[in-house]
Amino acid sequence: MKALVYHGAGKKLWEEKAPPQLIEPTDAIIRIVKTTICGTDLHILKGDVPTVEQGRTLGHEGIGIVESVGESVRNIKVGDKVIISCITVCGSCIHCKRQLYAHCKDGGWLLGHKIDGTQAEKVRIPHADNSLHRLPDDVDEEAALMLSDILPTGFEIGVINGRVQPGNTIALIGAGPVGLSALLASQFYSPAHIIMIDTDDNRLSVAQQLGANTIINPTRQDLAAIINKLTGGFGVDVAIECVGIPATFKICQDIIAAGGFIANVGVHGKSVDLHLENLWIKNITITTGLVNTSSTPMLLKSVQSGRIAPEKLVTHYYPLNEIETAYDVFNNAAQEKALKIVLSA
């Protein structure tokens, strides 16, 4: 089969690789129907995730058809169309019993990280019963693909951790796919005012179409003045960081109100300055996290009912065998006006 293989920082290749085999009785083999590229994949290629070994197949998102299952798999059967969760869940360890699936002792973030991932023609999924979600016939495949990672990430690590409540003024820093997912999911809680901050005017325009009340490009607008005017000088109730660089984390610290919540979603490859000397007296709560995907069943029902439409985040389409071209487009998202790219097998 063909797979996109990591060969060290800055190096990847679409190449032949042995197809995956069942190893444990709880495994399933999935034939990929659609997959996509995540900002985390770019972090891996920059060398920001040193735990990813050379020779690893990249990718942790996808939908596909079940081709075979281990003898202990009970809930998933051959022929099912499934959503592949970016988090592998054993369901029985101490962390799983607390719904901290990201820290599963025999799972967590494995795909494209510690085991071969989904940017391939086939993938092995450990703990298949807990790590796959059967896709209803009436749910669009592109919408379902967003449930692999970015929608639960934006919801759990941004919106839930940020304690978004009705009447809040919230700011999202970074209008990429995860930031826009957090924007969509935040509307479950009816915040009074949603601010989107980014340096890409195209992405800000998309954010406005998806529900942002105010958009700010800090390269040509006075961010502090606008926030002060909107909040009467108090700052925002919730700041959700969706980029993963020091500058965007600083913005969160600068605009947060007393008693507010800073929810960090972005993957940071470099250290940031934490201005605790200013924050401690303001009763600020800072949260971080890797998605647990515990919200995926609820989000799937919300998509099925039409309450949320994450397929609106898709901007580009490629066949799977053109994945290297798709990476070039995704890596130049501003110029290409790219958000999520759907790769179809």
Could you explain the architecture of this structure?
InterPro entries: ADH-like_C, ADH-like_N, ADH_Zn_CS, GroES-like_sf, NAD(P)-bd_dom_sf. Residues 177-295 form the Alcohol dehydrogenase-like C-terminal domain. Its cofactor is Zn(2+). The chain has 13 helices and 15 strands. It has 345 residues and is of the alpha/beta class. The protein has two domains: 2-149 and 292-344, Medium-chain alcohol dehydrogenases, catalytic domain (Quinone Oxidoreductase, Chain A, domain 1); 153-288, NAD(P)-binding Rossmann-like Domain (Rossmann fold, 3-Layer(aba) Sandwich). Strands 3, 4, 5, 6, 7, 14 and 15 form a seven-stranded mixed beta sheet that branches. Strands 10-9-8-11-12-13 form a six-stranded parallel beta sheet, sandwiched between helices. A two-stranded antiparallel sheet has the order 1-2. The protein is globular, with a radius of gyration of 20 Å.
